[in-house]
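Hey, I was hoping to borrow your eyes for a little while. I'm sending you its amino acid sequence along with the backbone structure tokens. Take your time with it, there's no hurry, and the full record follows here.
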Amino acid sequence: MSDILKEFVDGVGSLLTGYRITLTEFLKDPVTLQYPWDKWPIPTRYRGKLTVKGFFDEETIERKSTCYPEKDLAPCMKTCPAFTDVRGYITAIAEKNYLEGIRILKNTYPFAGSLGRVCPAPCEGRCTRGTAQRDPLTIRYLKRFLADYERGLPAESRVPYEKKDGPKPHKVAVVGAGPAGLTCAWYLALKGFPVTVFEKLPVAGGYLATGIPKYRLPREILKEEIKSITDLGVELKLNTAVGKDISYDELFSSGYSAVFIGAGATKPSRMGCDGEESPCVQTGEDFLYRVNLNLPYKLGKRVVVIGGGNTAIDCARVAKRLGSDVTILYRRTMAEMPAEEHEINDCINEEVNLEILTAPVKVCGCDVLAGIECVRCTLGEPDASGRRKPMPLECSEFIVECDTIITAVSRTPELPGLPESVKLTKWGTIQTDPMTGATSMKGVYAGGDAALGAATVIEAIATAKKAAMGIEKLLS
């Protein structure tokens, strides 16, 4: 009986919410949002003022903050760093016009299949359906559906990338074959520019290939998306580190008119505790790199992972799959963990131990690891990150026995050989114009981790696309 009553109360609440939204909108001047591919099912006389017409061409995306008031955009779109036309491709799915939905996504970026699996989906947190009902639309999985649907089609039935301009004389060099570098190369190739991507690793894809486990992102999907970029004429040079194997000066003297720096944040930060130089301590980035590329790695039976981000969760779940007993140590509470909530829940469901309000103090042992000494914490006032600062409790030391420690605290960009005229921020990232990606050196642009620090895939893609637009304007 209580369940029936609860459903009745929820139903009345939803109805009242609907009336509130309807009345609120009724008091406003009528507005009709027009998108490039909209079909009008109602007569003109019933429409409100048209806004956002032609919003999704590149120039208006770049100028969106000055062209259109933010209130004219759907909340999911405002939240997406790349301004994905969520409304457009979900409408196409609803109409079973799947190829149109695929075309909408392919006009935005070349990694729909990857994003449908690993994007943190900030759009879902702002979906208006989540305010009127319990759950938002599963925007990420709808994107994944479209990408997987196209993969199931024969090659001749898929939606091709169409070059938008003829060949250009200016060559562009891209540093890093991660999501930022490849997105920049993809955009410029569509505009007719000859592009060469330099990657220091033996594989392309950046963190998508080396840092994200295969169970989250199957490699055949990533390889197909990278191939669709190289099929546009993008040249890919692996095992070539710009700043070491070839200098930035050599790039310009070789005829490249512009350079985009999309190097990843591959330099791990230190824990700051005694004994972390022990050979039994390894970084999460190196561990995932070795596992993903089928290289030799060391992993004991009892593993401790230190950190609370997605890298820490990935390391823990991979180690669990490899047969280890895994414990995560995190110095704040679960609510402050930067990892995605569903990833944390999946980790716990896979019987990974989670020790919250726990900070490492000392690694016990050197060649043979006995464990790690920790201290219990409480949360104090917010620190510079806006989160409450963990404060150690006196006389709360204890030891977690383990034979392998994996650190996944944070990462910073590695930028060897960077020209002195390219200015850096106090965090060691490249200082850029937020709208164009331009650096302090003419002809040099940056995006992704190089400009943002350890960014999400969708953030890296968004900055790379802006930088590509900036390069196009410079060379045009």
